[in-house]
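User: Structure tokens for both sequences below?

Assistant:
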Amino acid sequence: MLYLKRKIDDYLIAWKEEADHKPLIVKGPRQVGKTESILRFAKAAYESVVVINFVEEPKYRLITEDGYKPSEIIKNISRMDPSKRFIPGKTLIFFDELQAHPDIATALKFFKIDGRFDVICSGSLLGINYKQIESNSVGYKTDYTLFSLDFEEFLWAKGYSESIAEELLNHLINQKPFNLIEMETYS
């Protein structure tokens, strides 16, 4: 499957490398690559990846029935699917489609305090429920907004190197006209 390099790729690596990183919420419009970027990163960076998609599998909206502590949530997930593996220090829990169960944001504080598992949430149209998500997890999460490809990411997708992308971007920033060769090449 073709994967387009995105700026979020480097961001996710840096987030994981932070010694005291908080749970991460990746928000943005539908179909911009949130889930794909997170899953690609997770598979490369973690021994175990537990994916909970609140839209595709609405049964998981019940995981907070017994409370918001990681032990209760993990116990409920394991009851629903005993194949999911929770290895302390080596597991990413990925709550996808957060907008379908914004209540899970309350658990982010407890996952941060517990510290055994990394957590990333992703969702679209979060503006509707984001006040609730924000009030439930203030101070215990990091936010990242992913948009459609920007100009630099578009150039990467077209196969241009970082140096060419930087050169083109500098043309635009400095309002420097392109020469005939550049015009022919990039048109």
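Moving on to the next sequence.
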Amino acid sequence: MKAAIFDGTEELKIRDLPIQEPKHDEVLIRIDSATICGTDQHILEKKFEAKPPVVLGHEFSGYVERVGSSVRICEPGDLVSVEPHVYCGCCKPCRLGKPHLCLDRLAWGINLNGGFEQFATVRMDTVYRVPDHLSGEEAALGEITGCCLNGIDRANVGIGDTVLILGGGAAGLILARLAELRGAAKIMISEPNAGRREQIRRFGYPDVIDPLNENLADIVLSATGGLGADVVIDAAGRPETAAQAVELACHAGRILFFGVMAPGKKIEIEPNRVFARELTIVGSIRNPFTHHRVMEIMPRLRLKDIVTHRFALDDIQEAFAAAKRGDGLKICIKPNG
């Protein structure tokens, strides 16, 4: 089979690899769709650790090809989504019921071969059957949607909230969909990319702000009677948006740092503002026990148009260039055509 190998350099290499036959507790998947995540880009830019040589791609789906003798949760022909993390079960976070913070975590597409290949062999406990009538591309969004659901839970979005999302890429739109389902009364999205702003409106969110040419603070305060947003989510992962989030939250507001910011980046926060307004600032990472919930709710999220660009495996460098430029929303690799 063909696979895109990360060898520690800034370009993935297409190589031939043997297909790994599944052990008794494993599932062999013919990859349908594997989407590019910001983490994949950070790995190539040496801003995030991976263990080369390894096949990247931790957001993927496919059809079951073969199963090990102990596997009962799926059978050949099933469309499945993969939750890519493998936890040790023995460290303190794991034993406190927070395995997503595992100190010895492994992950398909980070330090185990992931989805940018024609076939992947994964543990059965990371495999989830996909509801009928969902496409492989929607199924590949299970991992990022699970991360977004964790963020919405952490920010405690509720009925009647005004939610401001800074960054209108794929994650920003998925966060908006989930906030809508949780009962948010108003959703505002700040996005500097003109093409993405138009796509956001087509998804049904008219309150889209161009932060490069409009005064974001004035618009948010005007829309909230001078109070600020109940929930502010930094989905861009940039120092300037993280700092803005603190300034745009109302009294008793909740701030979520969701976007992945490169390690070492810092922002200035006025502690008195956090104190005087009783702000709550939380982070969220990965998707603890959310993948099953995501599969249950995915048919209601209407995410099929999140994938805007598709590339063959041989064209993966072009796909990463498109992702880096900010083309569209989600870039998808189709390893088997």
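User: Anything stand out in the second?

Assistant: The first helix runs from residue 38 to 44.
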